[in-house]
Fold this sequence. Notes:
Pfam families: Glyco_hydro_1
Protein name: Glycoside hydrolase family 1 protein
Number of domains: 1
InterPro entries: GH (IPR017853), GH_1_N_CS (IPR033132), Glyco_hydro_1 (IPR001360)
Low-confidence stretches: none
Helix content: 25-40%
Shape: globular
Family: Belongs to the glycosyl hydrolase 1 family.
Strand content: 5-15%
Radius of gyration: 21 Å
Keywords: Glycosidase, Hydrolase
CATH architecture: Alpha-Beta Barrel
Largest sheet: 8 strands, parallel, barrel
Strand order of the largest sheet: 1-2-3-4-5-7-9-10
Distance between the termini: 14 Å
Structural class: alpha/beta
Amino acid sequence: MGFPKDFLWGGATAANQCEGAYQEDGKGLSTADVMCLGAHGVKRKITKQIEENEYYPSHKAIDFYHHYKEDIALFAEMGFRVYRMSINWTRIFPNGDEEQPNEKGLAFYDRIIDELEKYHIEPLITISHFETPLALQKYGSWANRIVVKHYLRFAEILFKRYKGRVHYWLTFNEINCMSTQPWVSGGIESDDESIRMTAAYHQLLASAKAVIMAHHIDSENKVGMMYAGHFAYPNSCNPNDVIATMDFMHKMLFYCDVQCRGYYPAYKKQELQRLNIKLPIMQGDLDDLKNGTVDFVSYSYYCTHVTGEKTKGIMKGMNGLDTGYKNQFLPKSDWGWTIDPQGLRYSLNLLYDRYQLPVMIVENGLGAIDQLEKGEVHDDYRISYLKAHLKELEKAIMLDGVDVMGYTMWGPIDLIAASTGEMKKRYGFIYVDVDDYGNGTYQRYKKDSFYWYQKVIQTNGEYIHEED
């Protein structure tokens, strides 16, 4: 057993969940900046503008903006070979549609990449990670084709600025969330499926055009797509449950199909026709989709679902995890997400069999309530979770032959939760002393899992078998 010698070990964060400094150095407001603090099982409220009596977690987050040198040094101490990060669109174009970029915003990311280079850590950059410029609401956000143009201007600046310094890119984070969380995914609040599918089409087109551009600017660029890892088991062998599960997966995987294969699959075309939804396809678009397929597949993996004939449409409830069924065979996290290590192996095989492209796990981790006592956090539950998942990842590589590029755990340092904005839902190897309302010293502490992951990387994965 074992991992490839060039396996990319690391961690992943998102700008809006860690940076803070929401108005510093000319940054504009994004969709994330008007999302309030939620609570355990309570969805975050969207205010569309800053209101004095509300608390917005992204405004300060863990203040990575002023702690990035310290934090990257800790990543390097663990031995990171890659760091997945995102660039906040509104730091570069505060309103999203300016002709010229904000140099102070670019300079901030220059400094981050400088630090990564100092420690020989490869950047993996997500261009758009759940923070569409709020000012683009005047166009209807991604429902309007003009936003494709503004996104491509943003992407071009990044590709040219970091040519030769950044080799791995993701066009959109969890692009299929346009079907489950459209505000988060692209500043769309409508329940109208026609509007959502129009916005999705524009993002898929923008992604394809960005891939073409990235390859033209630097032939060394590798550009991937990123899927929110929704994977479902049928509730039973009843054919109705199996067909319903197929339908559920079609609604999720069509985003991958377009980005990996270069065209809308037949099943999606038929569905759009049944719903009388006509996509705004213009001359040249289909060629762009065909020519702008991605180089690799990346995805998040936290849990699996059970679906069947009771599952209607996509999903409902907090984070869209309510399918109408429960999995009696799996334990759950503190936030009710199933813990399914074998599902990771299953998902890797499913995606690799489907697309025959290299695969990368760019988010996987356990959100839990950690206790800081005398400067220490004993998170054996997180170590157990990660060890079990990495063993299944290893099986997918060694037993099944899946071409896996790397693994970036979410999130290596505590940050605000995308789903609720909470700090108490902690994922990190590094504890940050701040509570749900921004109170605390912001001091960083190494958890037990920090040292465990350090040994995993040092041994290229062999350490996961220690003490078995």
